[in-house]
Amino acid sequence: xxxxxxxxxxxxxxKYVTNASVWAANRMxxxxxxLHSLEKxxxxxxxxxxxxxxxxxxEHLLDExxxxxxxxxxxxxxxxxxxxxxxxxxxxxxxxxQTNTLQRHGDLVDNLIDLETDARLFVLGRLGTxxxxxxxxxxxxxxxxxxxxxxxxxxxxxxxxxxxxxxxAYDGRxxxxxxxxxxAQSPLLKGLPCxxxxxxxxxxxxxxxxxxxxxxxxxxxxxxxxxxxxxKIYPVxxxxxxxxxxxxxxxxxxxxxxxxxFFVGSNTSKMIVESDxxxxxxx
Length: 283
What we know:
Layout: E1 3-7, H1 14-28, E2 32-38, H2 46-53, H3 59-93, E3 99-105, H4 108-115, E4 119-125, H5 135-148, E5 153-156, E6 166-169, H6 174-185, E7 194-199, H7 204-219, E8 224-229, H8 233-243, E9 249-252, H9 258-264, H10 268-274, E10 279-282
Parallel strand pairs: 1-2, 1-4, 2-3, 4-5, 6-7, 6-9, 7-8, 9-10
Antiparallel strand pairs: 5-10
Helix pairs in contact: 1-3, 4-5, 5-10, 6-7
Domain UspA: 2-155, 203-283
Family: Belongs to the universal stress protein A family.
Protein name: Universal stress protein
């Protein structure tokens, strides 16, 4: 569990994913692996082609189409290597001291699962609110990654800048406390002011849990502002983030929790599209 793994695809997000991963690698004193996945074209396979042409068609046409697909696959490999080389150069200019590149065939999330035992943090990118892609398109890989992976995931936005503070969405459950413990023990966010926020009623039990989490973070040297704010999770967190100029939001992916439903449930794509700050997901 040593590497920061950055998912690079050659899009406009590549620069920001690279910058975010360099920041994380330097904060955590870990080597950086730049990963490019060559995902299979979901539209067409050789079997699809042979079935579509049918009897009576010229066989050479199928041969030409197969040859074209093979050429496309070769070009995709070459293009992927260029993407990785450029990202590696960018990472070194940004201050990375230990980098390597990795190109793999197959689905991105499947590749991340295979690499998880050697990962300390995954970094993925998503488009900001100034883009017109649908939430479903933007969030496909991220939602699957959040549901499947057990290592922390940093989701960066376009125009990444190192955060000067962060907010933790907290619900008082055991899994939430585990997430707090991981943040407290990790160097990733050490030294940054922390805003610990609970949404909902300020019952004595919830106040006690918030205070315990507060003390856990303070014990590790964090400067913490803790708050319980009445209301539903999404509007509370969104409004607090805007009012307090929060640079990064951290939250757990919890089973049987409203926070999990908020983030890795039906509201996932909404959060991915509407948030304009990086998101740190902890399992």
